[in-house]
Amino acid sequence: MQTVIEQPIDDTIKVAGRVTFDDARLTHAFSPVSGRVMTIEARLGDRVKKGQVLATIMAPDIGTATSDLRKAAADEKAAKIDLARQRDLVTKGAASVRDREQAEATDRIAEAELSRAQERVELLRGGMRGVAQRYSLRAEIDGEVVARLVSPGIEVPGLYAGGSPTELFTIGNIDRVWVLADVFEMDLGRVHRYSPVTVRAVAYPEHSYRGQIDWISEVLDPTTRTARVKVVLDNDPRFRLRPEMFATAEITVDPVRALAVPVHGVIRLGETTFVFVERGQSRDGRHRFERIPVVLDPSVGVAIHPVVSGLSAGMRIVTNNAIQLTGMLR
Q1: pLDDT per position as a tens digit, 136-169
Q2: Which of 72, 160, 212, 269 is the most exposed place for a label (fewest CB within 10 A)?
Q3: How big is the CA angle at 296 (ends 249 and 322), to the nearest 5 degrees?
Q4: Which range scores top for mean pLDDT: 121-130, 151-160, 257-266, 284-293?
Q5: Segments in 49-172 forming alpha helices (H)
Q6: What does the DSSP assignment read for 154-174?
Q7: Which pLDDT belongs to residue 160?
Q8: By C-alpha distance, which of 33, 63, 67 is closest to 132?
Q9: Model confidence at 127: pLDDT above 60
């Protein structure tokens, strides 16, 4: 027998999720220069280190950038010489203020052009290889080559050429991954940042991974009425958690208090759900029971379910071998 009371139930919720890359551990490699791919140094599936050469590109842009820098430096030097001369002439009364102002404007333009040329060469410097106009495209992070969209001999547009650049490589690191899951609106009040989470991949249900909620979206999906949450997980040595895998996440949440009954005290016959409530004793000393239909919420709780209707606090119900009473009552 058990008395029906208000008690805490359902301290976890189970939601569906999807494994994704940590966006700080995923990079898309584009060529900053236009040219022809000469060699491919990294194959699909290769593990690469930051700074490792992925491909070599014959790039006339390198020669153009170097030439532009030299010209800009010469123009800037000439502009400064002319500005100094104009200032001296104005001091001696041999030139007008307007001539000096024009020289100052020319000097500022030359400085800006020199700065632009220097920045462009600096962008290319990491991959420049001597005077042969070869550019080495390098990995920006440690990781695995998860996509290679380039072959030797093809022409690739530069990232700064003004057209549509072509992604050449995708490099990802799955030492640490994200699990993105959707929490229903009704449960959001019980989910908090840093709430503990246990994740299981559908492909490997026997393995569990423990983490915590790192982020909760402030915007709900208007169709599903869910909010996206993010869990950060360290992968295992075999890298079982792979991007785009489906997973389930059990989130530890604030428990709900409600009238509840244990599942093993509930009888289901067809579409009817009921429990046996004690109604005192008969004259011969035997206990009397009454079959009471109840409505429960099976979506909440595992061992116990909250009572929607049919029972009141203080009632005593049969919890052991209740099924044996079904044949005794009419």
Answers
A1: 899 999 999 999 999 998 988 887 666 677 899 9
A2: 269
A3: 110
A4: 151-160
A5: 60-91, 97-125
A6: -EE--TTSSS---EEEEEE--
A7: 67
A8: 63
A9: no
Residue 328 Cα distances to 154, 280, 323, angstroms: 85, 16, 10
What radius of gyration, in Å, describes the C-alpha atoms of the chain?
A: 36
List the domains of the chain with CATH numbers: 12-22+176-254 (2.40.30.170), 33-58+133-172 (2.40.50.100), 62-125 (1.10.287), 257-327 (2.40.420.20)
- Chain position carrying tokens 């041999």: 94
What are the φ/ψ torsions at residue 47 (nearest 5 degrees)?
-90, 125
* Lookup: tokens for 111: 């400085």
Contact 274, 23 (CB under 8 A): no
Residue 264, token pair as written in the block: 């093993």
Q: How many CB atoms lie within 10 A of CB 223?
A: 6
Structure tokens at 5: 């009371």
- DSSP annotation of 255 reads P
Taking the CB of residue 60, how many other CB atoms lie within 10 A of it? 12
Amino acid in position 6: E
Angle subtended by helix axes 97-125 and 60-91, to nearest 10? 160
Beta bridge pairs of residue 48: 143
Q: How many Cα atoms sit within 13 Å of 163 on the Cβ side? A: 12
Distance CA 219, CA 209 (A): 27
